[in-house]
TrEMBL record:
Gene3D superfamilies: Rhomboid-like. Residues 69-213 form the Peptidase S54 rhomboid domain. The chain crosses the membrane at residues 19-40, 72-96, 108-130, 142-163, 175-192. This is Rhomboid family intramembrane serine protease. It is found in: Membrane. One of its GO terms (cellular component) is membrane. It comes from Persicitalea jodogahamensis. Residues 271-303 form the DUF6576 domain.
Length: 305
């Protein structure tokens, strides 16, 4: 058992492993709730489990939400059904790795969180503003990472619409068609038993689309989140003991320069020859053959007007 925990810890602490961290948080919450449900059921305290999950679900009623404002975040890290989390995490992984490669881990986190929040806001608004749903507000609650995953999927599809996935029994298909199919499916299911949840997907999808379009025009919607993430990281970062020597300063300076050179923000705007070379490489070998730096240069070039 300790080996399993060590594996989880090792994966979570790896650098440049943001997508896996998001998935691990969802899995840990799911397994914790599953174990808690078994314990409470055997102890004939099922009502305690229901109360616990209610503290994580997003309620549709505004008055109830005011007592549980944290649920606008917790709901998109919480699942109860195995197929619900399995589908969401696979969906997130397929599209999330593209966002991570082309835009970096910070923007992946921003897409996930902003999409989840937008989906939650859409859910509450729909249930309280549309007459069709107003009679269902009382007792309606939502959980699951679908809206956040949709944000990442549509973001990736907006950024790389012609990127292809090889689907079983279907073959290669462009990701823009996959995203479009699931958007239409969510609309079609908007009058079913999970109507609010399916419409919340559209809030996440719209966020993913707008995030990339704004980014391509030079505006990063994730900047407020980056500030919060920096503050969070500084709170929990271990600070090494201070030792002032001339040699160590040189080492630190060198390491800092290397880190800066390796960061996505430091990638220079490519000239036309570089762009043509990258495009030729794509036509011959596909997007997968590009290095991370080439992908970042291609994205920089797309921002040039």
């Amino acid at each position: 058992m300790s080996g399993i925990f060590d594996d989880f810890k090792r994966e979570f602490t790896k650098t440049d492993n943001t997508l896996v961290r998001i998935i691990l948080i969802n899995v840990v919450v799911f397994l914790s709730l599953l174990l808690t449900k078994v314990i409470f059921t055997l102890g004939q305290s099922s009502e305690a489990y229901v109360w616990l999950v209610d503290m994580l679900r997003l309620p549709a009623a505004p008055r109830e939400f005011l007592y549980k404002p944290w649920t606008i975040i917790t709901y998109f890290f919480t699942h109860e059904e195995i197929f619900h989390i399995l589908f969401n995490m696979l969906f997130l992984y397929w599209f999330g790795r593209l966002v991570d490669e082309y835009l970096g881990s910070k923007r992946l986190i921003a897409l996930y969180i902003l999409g989840g929040i937008a989906g939650g806001v859409a859910y509450v608004a729909i249930y309280n503003l549309l007459p069709y749903f107003q009679s269902q507000v009382a007792g309606s609650q939502m959980l699951g990472a679908s809206a956040a995953a949709f944000s990442v999927a549509v973001g990736a599809s907006t950024l790389l619409p012609n990127y292809t996935f090889n689907l079983i029994f279907i073959g290669p298909i462009r990701i823009k068609y996959i995203a479009f199919f699931y958007i239409i499916l969510s609309l079609a299911q908007s009058i079913g038993p999970n109507a609010g949840g399916n419409l919340a997907h559209l809030g996440g999808a719209l966020t993913g689309f707008l995030f990339i379009k704004f980014l391509q025009n030079g505006t990063d919607m994730g900047k407020p989140l980056y500030v919060l993430m920096a503050i969070w990281n500084n709170l929990f970062r271990r600070r090494p003991p201070m030792r002032v020597t001339h040699r160590q300063k040189e080492v630190q300076r060198t390491a800092s320069a290397y880190s800066s050179a390796a960061s996505p923000a430091s990638v220079e705007m490519p000239d036309q020859d570089e762009i043509d070379s990258i495009l030729d490489k794509i036509s011959k070998s596909g997007y997968e053959s590009l290095t991370k730096e080439e992908k970042q240069k291609l994205f920089k070039a797309s921002q040039q007007k």
